[in-house]
Amino acid sequence: MTSHQRILTPALPLFLRYGVQSMTMDDTAAHLGTSKKTVYK
């Protein structure tokens, strides 16, 4: 599994539920249980 898949697979339901414009990197990182730095990297 690529790093993109490890991030997008669990985050996709959030994007579908709340919309891309409403989601922040803080929300995404918190849902993934990781830091924003890790998501950006």
From TrEMBL:
InterPro entries: Homeodomain-like_sf (IPR009057), HTH_TetR (IPR001647)
Taxonomy, superkingdom: Bacteria
UniProt keyword list: DNA-binding, Plasmid
Keyword Transport (UniProt): no
Matching SUPFAM superfamilies: Homeodomain-like
Keyword DNA-binding set for record: yes
Residue ranges constituting the HTH tetR-type domain according to the UniProt record: 1-41
This protein's name: TetR/AcrR family transcriptional regulator
